[in-house]
Write a structure and sequence with these properties.
The complex is a heterodimer of chains A (181) and B (353). With 181 residues, chain A is mainly α. Chain A contains nine helices and no strands. The longest helix of chain A has 27 residues. Classes of the chains: A mainly alpha (181), B mainly alpha (353).
Amino acid sequence: MVTYLMVMTDTETLQEAYLWQIGSLAGLTWNDLPLMLVITIAGCIFSMAVARQLNVLTMGDKGAKSLGINVSSFRTICLIVLAVMTASVISYTGIIGFIGLVAPHLVRLFMGSDNRFVIPVSMLAGAFILLISDYLALTVSGVSDIPVGVITSLIGSPVFLLLIIWQRKSYGRIYRWSVRS
Amino acid sequence: MERSELKFRYGRSRCSCTIVIVVSVCIILALCLITLGLGVYEISIPDAVGVFIGHLTGTPLDFKDDHYVFDVRLPRAIAAVFVGAALALGGAVMQTILRNPLADPYTMGISSGAFFGAVLSIICGFSIIPSLSGDAATIVNAFITSLIPVAVIVLLLRFNKMTPTVMILVGIAVMYVFASANQYLMVTADSSSLSEAYSWRVGTLADMTWGDLVPIVGVVTMLATAIMFLYRRVNVLMTDDDYCRTLGVNVQVTRVILLLLVALMTSTVVCFTGTIGFVGLVCPLVVRLFVGSDSRKLLPLSLVMGALFLLAIDSVAKITGVNGLPVGVISALIGGPVFVYLLVRRKGKNNWM
């Protein structure tokens, strides 16, 4: 349906709609920050608190159940918290991709898979990556204003490809998690 | 069950499958004739059929009618048949060899690769073969760049041993790389090029000429026949890799060959029409619901059903909206909910095959 609407409108509206969906940090003011900050900090505290249970969850549903975690409700709660956290950020900035995908895998390359360490370090790594991308977006683009979402995809997608190609046994292969056979 | 009884049942199901194929081909031919009368230019269906017959027998009735029916609508109908067949067959093969019900012919990154070529031509005005320009440049660009992701995956297959899951992930990663480059080019474009590029991506069967049809029909026929001759290998590849080896099928080589055939077929189709989604995803799944996963029945039936589906959707696309809509919009509108319904319905069964 979005496609239908986009195809039916005139060219300026199409461009505006298209640019809206790409993530950009431009146009953020002090007023926007409090809501984002509160939800993000709450989400981060929650994640660090459940880090141990997330560790147990990587053993698979049956293993986690036998160790006393209510798997489906835990998963639902985590997903809700994540969704709220992500929504609070994206509704201001638009979709900035690849940071959530690439940062944790890079951190795991160096630190192993223990979630008690991976979660806080990923937070810092994500913040760092976005700051650098924003700096690149401002300096490299020169005259035209390139949204930061474009830069994160341009950098993040080759990194993602390389991560998949160079799997290391030490930190666990990415694709193993999806294969249960 | 006795062997003769098994044979009898299998023969009967193949027979009913053949009947369905024959009936569908008749419906396709009838729909081709009906769709000659649909569209913005006002002409009734019996008149259109009369014009068509008149052209064939060498006595054209009315010059303008004849032009619209024979030069605009008939190529479009034939293109819909062959494009739908190619996409659905490619989808069936991809789902089988990658053992994943979410695979479609674009899984290897062909869609964003082709879009990259189109964007290069539409927005940057750059053509890979320097002597072309305009539409021809878009088509050739899209064809060449759509094969790059496939080349990357095939090269990686030679160095690492890859399971289907890794192949899908690599395909998705390559798709992301091209999608990010496309995004960059689209953001820096002006609004008219952006809307032209966006329309290309949605996928349309309008502006098909007889000249466009020659490569489409030729390539699709050849490659579809080749793929259907390999149906036994496709059947075996559905099972585990180790079973395939014990049955004497060289897994890597067969997979690469099938991938290349599907990729060539899909690239040829995509570079003319744009990325028409959901046909390659939904048609094979629906056919599988009725027929099961036996490639001997699945491949021909999904070929025919894909052609019928796209022809029907194109007819609908021609009459909706003010000036007709691009096919990709309708296929997404229909395909999306059907896909969700299929996913929800399958929740109970673990083994989709």
